[in-house]
Amino acid sequence: MLAFFRSLSRSDGVGSVAEKTRAPEGVIDPTPAWWEIRVPSVKIALPDTIESPAASPDIPVFRPRLPSADRLLPYLREIDAGRWYSNHGPLLDRFEGALAERFAVAPERVIAVANATAGLSLCLLAARAAGGGNRADGLCVLPSWTHEASAIAVVRAGLTPWFHDVDEASWRLDPDRVADEIRADPRVVHVMVTAPFGARVPLAPWADLSERTGIGVTIDAAAGFDGLRGGPVDAVVSLHATKILGIGEGGVVVARDAARASLIRRLARFGLSEDRVIDHAGMNAKLSEYAAAVGLAALDEWPARRAGFAWRRERYANRLDGRNGIRVWRPEGLSSSLMVRLPGPTAVETAEALRRLGIETRRWWHAGCHRQPALEGFPRRPLPVTEALAESVLGLPYHGDLDAAAIDRVAAALLSVSAASTPSPSAGT
Hints:
Helix content is about 35%, strand content about 15%.
């Protein structure tokens, strides 16, 4: 890789060196001087200490931003006046109502919870309490191409994760293939379908599978705040600080119907009924009034926040999509992650190359759940697509502080790195 960086200093064609210049506007200059490297249609600035790893990136992969104290103050004053701090207070009621409008469902179907991982476990516990999946050796089918929290939620609900591969194009489980697995193994009692990085999951096929088999289905739409609409299966959205609409820690369950929502709400308060009777053990997953205050303030800012993420994604796409074999992940909904698929298994090498250029990246789902030591012992089907995605998908910097110059710098750097790592058509002839 160092040879690649040295090759950029050659004065031959693509790698020609121009005069030393100041850092581009809006870019922090970590060194006294810069080299300006020109490639076709792009420009990238490299520090002259390139062979020393950067102590911290010039361009971080993500910078969370929650509503300011000034935005929160009116809601906090309401809490002070009412002295209602938790246990489904008036702010939480308003927050759930606003979320219900967002997800196009009746308010009683929305349950705000402490975090999305707990929300997923609650959906599984509710399905079991409602009469499905009580066998001790019950399996939950889910993708390995997902955040590890999905699998942890399955384990905490008392089921065994069974990792399956995803479709190459959609990065999701395929309902027809899952149906075949269910028919082949009676131990399957639930299916968890991940909506990858803001993508929408068609709900009708999964509702049909659940209806035909009696097996519960939950949609893990952790990054799906923008694209999710309520439907005939349970879905969970994360409201973590890193999400496109965040409150610090939190999540929301959009239940399939009012009856399921009532059960999930009860399980989120230990399983206690109004008469303080526990028929099914739950957990403490309640969301406080303070978190609801952050949520209401975040919704006030949502239109402007969404617009900012939208133009940043389009700028990346205009500069990267289809060039050097790079594909920008652009699903129906926006998320707080900007994912690209590289033309080959070079995610690790590319991340290191960009790091040396002061650009932080992230393999958000790492190498797949099945590679984590705590999860590798669980059953799994062959996972060739998951393995390929893990080696070729990379998250680029994407946040509200990212200006046009920074996006152009990231795009130029990625094109330069990918051009160096992609063999030319005439190589070897």
